[in-house]
Amino acid sequence: MPFFLDVILPLPLKETFTYVITPAEAAVIQPGMRIIVPFGKRKKYTAISWHVHQTPPKTYVPKQIDSIIDEKAVLSHKQLDFLHWIADYYQAPIGLVARTAVPSVMLLESETEMATHQWDRVPQSLSQKASSLLHQLNHNSTYSIAQIQQLISIKNPYGIIKELVASGCVSLKEAVYAKYAPKQQTEIRLHENIYDDDTLKKTLEDFSSKPKQYQTLLTFLQQKTPVIKADFVKLESVSSSSLNTLIKHHVLTKHQRIIDRLPPKLSADESLTALSSHQLQATSAIKQYWKEKNVVLLHGVTGSGKTEVYMHLISQQLAKGKQVLFLVPEIGLTTQLMQRLYTYFGKQLVVYHSKYSPQERAETWDKILTNKTTARLVLGARSAVLLPYQELGLVVVDESHEMSYKQFEATPRYHARDAAMVLAHKHHAKVILGSATPSIESYAHAQSGKYGLVSLTQRYQDAQLPEITYVDLAEAHRKKQMSGHLAQPLVQAIQETLRASKQVLLFQNRRGYASFIECRQCAHVPQCPSCDVSLTYHQVTKELRCHYCGYMDQYTAACVACGTLAPQTQGLGTQQLEEEVQALFPSARIGRMDLDTTRKKNAHQKLINAFARQEIDILIGTQMITKGLDFKQVTLVGVISADNFLHFPDFRAHERAFQVLTQVAGRAGRLGDKSKVLIQTFQPQHPVLGLVRNYDFPAFFDIQIEQRKQFGYPPFVRMMRIELKHKNMSSLITASDWLKKGLVERFPNVLGPVAPVVGRVRNFYILHILIKLPLNASQSAAKNRLESLLKSFAMVGSFSQVKVAVDVDPQ
Ligand code: ADP
Ligand code: ZN
Fold it and tell me: How far is CA 151 from the centre of its chain?
């Protein structure tokens, strides 16, 4: 009986793919090894082994594998299981889940190469270009496509290559090369000829007549080891030619050493600060819950010391030799947290996210796979749940309410918070979900007893939560008390804060200068040509930009539609706010934090450090400044407008409004100084705003959960959203109506199709259909029903251009 191997190919395939293997291969292949396999006409891919068995595939004749890369598995068994769960639950091809998980340098595809044979003379039949190429090639050699492109300076050489293949002088082959290479450094050492003081003395005497070499040697002897060549030759007393001479004369030698790509950790690990009595109580309550429940929701007001509590629980797990995963919503915004964790756990901390190079990520991967002590605490965003943990003891999900835990747009559309709970379960590990403003779903699970619930209602050292006041914009406009976009009470509060040498945070959730520009004469608003949004005006660069697709246009002082000069700016972006505030407070030092000012590496960190050192008085920013920052001297937070949050057409709009406003308010008064939050709004009487002012999360929850129940939203139903995209609106409507009909026959509760807030992006029109499933409905039955319907949908010829994506638990 032959042996077969199922592998996961890094391609959008729903299923694993089967190959034939020899009994010898069957004996050594473990799940999670990388296997090179042929797939499709000619290409080779790095696949991941999954399952060895003896049942031949039914629908195709299996091919043989090409080769086995690894001696040991590079994905752990639990991890493979977990990746399959993600594929299954989020209805994503397993290959794409694997490709999201595994650093790209570990999963190479083959490249086409051209191999030359031998020929006596260049065939007459060849075109002039083909024969001139052949003249330049050596016999029996191998050329990459890039080399050929260079040789004949043609971008697309495939026609010519085809001709040469037909002539029999060359053939094509596929090659896979390892792109991962360990990083090496060259070090200088004494040659083994010089083994004691006497030989050294003698050598020095030998070179005493040659001042340059003598000097270089002396300098070498003064260095601390290891002496890195690149640094050494930069020293003033060293010349590289004399170094070479010394090497030639066997005084010194060069040595290659493999080194860590990730920066060395120098900081001593400090011991943790003592917990306050509230924090101690919370910690022991969490541990008590863990005896019977896997997940505990830590609901702690901003500044209550949740991070301190996490750190104590983390250190206990590390002491047991367990791995800990610390998840954050966006790694780029966690500079401060990173510094705090580094101080205590520096030697065991690794950070994992997409800004690291694939090579660096592969190194981190390996450390976690082999359970190295230098990578026991993993700090990362979403994709860190996909790493090859061996012995996970604890998962901390910080700011667990944040919607950026859900991957949207790209497949797999997984929710890292929810997936982390499944991952933890596989490892028998514990989970803390932390938040000052938990999601309605998490809090409902805590109330029902599915999770433990621990609350920290006091700030550390009983610092007061800031007092929240609403500024009525309608009234301020009526009374003509507006200075630009700031109402009098806010201007005054800023003045007082600056006078007291304290700091101000101003929050406006829109970057750029103005949200759009509008002609005063014809009311024309420049639009993105490929998306249904108006372009945002960026004043510094005099550009109009689309924040959805990146389209850019030059700003012109005359309306492009009617030619009237000086179009008006509408709405307010952070750039314009900065200008207004600077004009109002000319001597204040102002900083701005948004996507535009933090694009460069370390820019975010620099701004944060400058603000922490009080080199900035007023920091203006988008949502970025609402997240997790801990500045001691901020006593005033101003929100330019709360209204956008209240009116977003989404069942989570109020939840988000509550979260954002509470979080931004939480940045003030963290040292215990009396502090204020002023929020400008046209609707000061809005019920959500009243609950924010009173920091009354439980009351807010009660209202929300009632509405969710009444209108049938999570956690009372489970949702799947189908997204359809097409360049042509009427084809899209036809397709979505067809699908809706089929869905209605199969599911009790189907809504839509409706267009999302931005109904066209990058030239694709978008429609959403929502399926609501009762909680007791079988998840897999629903999935099968949907899958079979989508299969029939794909068979309809006229729908072949419609892009369909399923989003399970959409946010
Ligand atoms: P949260 O994460 O709940 O917003 P943090 O953990 O950031 O709160 O704590 C708020 C501030 O109080 C931080 O500056 C932190 O260093 C300080 N703090 C909290 N608990 C302690 C403690 N036990 N000892 C010393 N400082 C603490
Ligand atoms: Zn656009």
Answer: 40
pLDDT at 182: 64
The Cα angle at residue 316 between residues 315 and 319, in degrees rounded to 5: 85
Which pLDDT belongs to residue 263?
57
Which of 299, 630, 631, 695 maximizes ligand 1 atoms within 8 Å of its Cβ, making it the mutation to test the pocket? 630
Beta-bridge partner residues of 51: 6
**Burial level of 237, CB count in 10 A (0-12/13-18/19+)?**
exposed
Contact 324, 394 (CB under 8 A): yes
- The whole-number pLDDT of residue 511 equals 64
Q: For residue 268, what pLDDT is reported? A: 53
Neighbours of 61 (CB within 10 A): 7
Task: Return d(Cα 474, Cα 480) in angstroms, integer.
Answer: 10
- 246-249: list long-range contacts, CB under 8 Å, 24+ apart: 246/207, 246/213, 246/216, 246/217
C-beta atoms surrounding 60 within 10 Å: 9
> Residue 671 Cα, ligand 1 centroid: separation in angstroms?
10
320 by Cβ neighbours in 10 Å (0-12 / 13-18 / 19+) ranks as exposed
For the stretch 407-425, what's the b/e string if a residue is b when 16 or more beta carbons lie within 10 angstroms of its beta carbon? Answer: beeebbbbbbbbbbbebbe
pLDDT band at residue 379 using 50, 70 and 90 as cut-offs: very high
The pLDDT tens digits of the residues spanning 623-671 come to 888 876 788 899 999 999 888 788 766 788 899 999 999 999 998 887 7
Ligand 1 pocket: which residues have CB below 6 Å? 273-276, 279, 300, 302-308, 460, 630, 670
pTM flag (> 0.70): yes
* Closest by Cα among 698, 630, 623 to 661: 623
Q: Dihedrals φ, ψ of 502, to 5°?
A: -105, 180
CB atoms within 10 A of CB 375: 22
Q: How many CA atoms lie within 13 A of 607 on its CB side?
A: 26
* Amino acid sitting at position 720: M
Q: What is the four-CA torsion angle of 4, 5, 9, 13, rounded to 10 degrees?
A: 60
Query: In terms of DSSP bridges, do strands 634-639 and 503-507 run parallel, antiparallel, or are they unpaired?
Result: parallel
> Which tokens sit at 494?
């800023």
Give me the residues paired with residue 143 across strands: 114
Kindly state the DSSP code that residue 459 receives in the 8-state scheme: -
Q: How far is the CA of 666 from the centre of ligand 1 (A)?
A: 13
Q: Which residues contact 807 (CB under 8 A, 6 or more apart)?
A: 408, 413, 720, 721, 722, 723
The token pair at 661 is: 């406003």
* Residue nearest atom 6 in ligand 1 by C-alpha distance: 305
Q: Token match 């934090």: residue?
A: 593
Q: How many residues are present in the chain?
A: 811
Ligand 2 centroid to 93 CA: how many Å? Answer: 29
Integer Cα distance of 763 and 424 in angstroms: 41
Least confident range from 44-53, 539-548, 742-751: namely 539-548
Residue type, 474: A
Strands (E), 663-741: 676-681, 717-726
> Using only C-alpha atoms, what is the Rg of the chain?
32
- Span 359-376, pLDDT tens digits: 888 889 999 999 999 899
* CB-based contact 479:545 (threshold 8 Å): no
CA–CA separation, 508 and 513 (whole Å): 11
